[in-house]
Design goal:
It is built from 7 helices and 3 strands, in the order H-H-H-E-H-H-E-E-H-H. It is mainly α. The protein has one domain: Winged helix-like DNA-binding domain superfamily/Winged helix DNA-binding domain (Arc Repressor Mutant, subunit A, Orthogonal Bundle). It has a 3-stranded antiparallel sheet.
């Protein structure tokens, strides 16, 4: 699927889903929350994602301004990820989705 086709759409929901609508992006956003994490720490929190997919998704989220990638303070070779202001604005939405799941799907799990 060509991501650019969706981003150029005039529909706000279509643009939103093009930005955060993959399987892993909401999970990455939720896992980061208000923390700053290194790649390895994030990978441990989301242990079912492959390193390649995590790398690709982090790159796209960075390009979309959802997360910030910066050098770790204690190492020139390591990087850290954190949500930008734009990404932090998604946290209440992610929390609402989690609450919705707990309310309506708890008995189905």
């Amino acid at each position: 699927m060509n991501r650019e086709i969706f981003i150029c759409s005039n529909c706000p929901m279509t643009r939103t889903m093009a930005t955060i609508g993959t399987k892993w992006k909401p999970i990455i956003i939720y896992a980061l929350g208000n923390r700053t994490l290194r790649f390895g720490e994030l990978h441990v929190r989301i242990d079912t994602i492959s390193r390649k997919v995590l790398t690709d998704q982090l790159r796209e989220l960075t390009e979309d301004g959802i997360i910030q990638r910066s050098p770790a303070q204690d190492s020139s070779r390591k990087v850290e990820y954190r949500l930008t202001e734009k990404g932090l604005a998604l946290l209440p939405i992610m929390n609402m989705l989690t609450e919705w799941n707990l309310r309506y799907n708890e008995s189905e799990i």
